[in-house]
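Input/output pair, single chain:
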Amino acid sequence: KVEFLERGGAPPRRYLRDWPVWCVRGSTVAAEEMLTVDQIPTKLRTEHFKMYYQRDLKLMKVSNPQLARLCAAYHFDLVLIDGNEYTGWAEFNRVRNECRPTYLALHDTQTLKTHKIEEYLEAHQDEYALYLRKGATQSMHPGCMLVGCRPESAFTVNEAGWAIYKRVEQQGRSVYR
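Output:
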């Protein structure tokens, strides 16, 4: 977990301390990699945008991007993109090109954060194939084995969408580095 807000890192450090998760202070990508204002649809330039876009841009300009460094040093089996809605596309491009995890998980699907990613993955199914998604926790085989093929009702109710993709093995290229 990479977090540029000190208060944002406290809950994960507390709740994830028994799991193989590192909490790292910094940003994932550079401020220049954020979506620009003109890349954000006008209808999404809401009060939320007005409150957070400039704040996040300012914070990222003084944060140290960590994703490239971490991906160069370690192999991650799974990378979850669940951060800032203005950096999702840049994070995805770094993850797919530099981290190359076996699994790629998206949280808050069908939002600004993941829209371009989902479009890309739909058009490039030779890279990552949909493995499991919200609403199919019982029916998508073999992906549902990750959650015991339990029905959606067995999980805590949450409005957010999610999806897990698995890297496609290609001729002469393993899913591992």
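The mean pLDDT is 86. The first helix runs from residue 6 to 15.
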